[in-house]
Specification:
The protein is an alpha+beta fold. The chain is 36% helix and 20% strand.
């Protein structure tokens, strides 16, 4: 009652407080946001995008950051779509772009294999039953913050919107999206990465 209506409408309340920023396009989120979130994480890095390939170009010295984080004891996980899966094939027909979904996944696998000497980096393919749920929503977790992209219709990831969330406790948007990614992870298939040197 003390605040004018115009002020009340602009103050974040309830679950909305977890939204730090929103972007109409994932590509509009600055590279330094991705880099700082990755650098600042101490316990958990969970990259649950369907392809994740853009991280190596979006985040400066991404392999170097992952090496440091692993040495510092941070848990690092990658959840990918199966490049040979039916949902991947269908998504390629929908997107109809030169850099296909399966190619983008294989770029990530190649980069992960270059990090293969780092024991403990975990990688899985989402299960065939979960692939359609995975391809439609990307969740990237950095301790208690996350970048989330709901994929729109025929658009590729960088053209879909992005939310920057910070956990404010149980039951909020951060928890809802994190629990979704964890559920996919629990049913996912472990990937045996080839160890190579770069």
């Amino acid at each position: 009652m003390l605040w004018p209506k115009a002020v009340r409408e602009r103050v974040k309340t309830g679950g909305d407080r977890e939204i730090l920023h929103s972007y109409p396009y994932r590509s509009a989120c600055p590279s330094n946001v991705w880099g700082e979130l990755t650098e600042q994480a101490t316990e958990e890095l969970f990259f649950a995008g369907y392809t994740n390939y853009f991280l190596w170009t979006q985040v400066p010295d991404f392999p170097g950051i992952l090496r440091r984080k692993k040495q510092e004891g941070c848990r690092i996980r990658f959840l990918l779509g199966d490049p040979n899966g039916e949902v991947t094939r269908q998504r390629e027909l929908i997107e109809d772009v030169a850099l296909t979904v399966s190619t983008r996944i294989r770029i990530t696998l190649e980069n992960l294999e270059r990090l293969g000497h780092l024991e403990g980096i975990e990688a899985r393919f989402s299960s065939p039953e979960d692939a359609v749920n995975h391809v439609s929503l990307s969740v990237f977790r950095f301790d208690d913050e996350a970048l989330v992209t709901p994929h729109l219709a025929r658009l590729v990831g960088h053209d879909s919107p992005l939310l920057h969330l910070r956990s404010m406790g149980k039951g909020g948007m951060f928890s809802r999206f994190s629990e979704h990614a964890e559920e996919l992870w629990d049913r996912a298939v472990p990937i045996q990465l080839q160890k190579t040197t770069a």
